[in-house]
Amino acid sequence: MKLSVLIPVYNEESSVSELLRRVLEVPCEKELVVVDDCSTDRTWDVLEAVDDPRVRVLRHDVNQGKGSAIRTAVGHATGDWVIIQDADLEYDPNDYPRLLAPVERGEAQVVYGVRDLDSQKFLFRLGNKFLTFATNALYGSHLSDMETCYKLMPRQVMLDLGLEATRFQIEPEITAKLLRRGIRIVEIPIWYQPRDAEKKLSAWKDGLPALWTLLKYRCGPA
């Protein structure tokens, strides 16, 4: 069972090399599909220097957003399963085996990694909890962390979702379309440590579009 790790990257020159090292050390069959979303720092120089056959590096000529980078990555993936991995070291790739375990036992098709959000800044924690609450209210689900980066599923399932989002709305879009299709999401606790640096995600600029995305796919086509 081959895992494709989809890694959207934008201006992560200080962390991306360490992130790739950590992912490559995880004991499972895998490929890394890294998409540099037109970084303006030295991220692309770092990625071009990577010499490992398990790592495929792509670049957008124009900045398009995290959602676009994920869509590009899954379009070039060849694994049986895919997982999204941010490049900012907030998540620990050593959790992959724990996420894969219910899949290998035949107990799950889609697995989400659930974060402990107590260490998040108040506004982000409130926003994450509200969006998860809205998801459960709209779709009749019982999720604990809709916005988690760690979403593991068969590659073909992600391709079949027909993803459209360009920015951070990709997270609610994936979840909404999975739930509309009646696909059960299994949740597994994971390690999580939010970084102190300023996040690219905006609680207001990205939070409201995320809510709109949940509403749109609840009423529109799945």
Give a verbal description of the structure.
By secondary structure, the protein is of the alpha/beta class. It has one domain (3-219): Spore Coat Polysaccharide Biosynthesis Protein SpsA, Chain A, CATH 3.90.550. 38% of the residues lie in helices and 17% in strands. It has eight helices and seven strands, in the order βαβαβαβαβαβααβα. A seven-stranded mixed beta sheet has the order 3-2-1-4-6-5-7, with helices on both faces. The chain is globular.
> Per the principal axes of the C-alpha atoms, what is the gross shape?
globular
- Biggest sheet strand order reads 3-2-1-4-6-5-7
The assigned CATH architecture is Alpha-Beta Complex
Roughly what fraction of the amino acids lie in strands?
A: 15-25%
Order of helices and strands: EHEHEHEHEHEHHEH
Low-confidence stretches: none
Share of helix, binned: 25-40%
- Oligomer status: single chain
Briefly, what CATH class?
Alpha Beta
Helix and strand content put the structural class at alpha/beta
CATH topology: Spore Coat Polysaccharide Biosynthesis Protein SpsA, Chain A
* CATH superfamily caption: Spore Coat Polysaccharide Biosynthesis Protein SpsA, Chain A
Query: On the 0-100 scale, what is the average pLDDT?
Result: 93
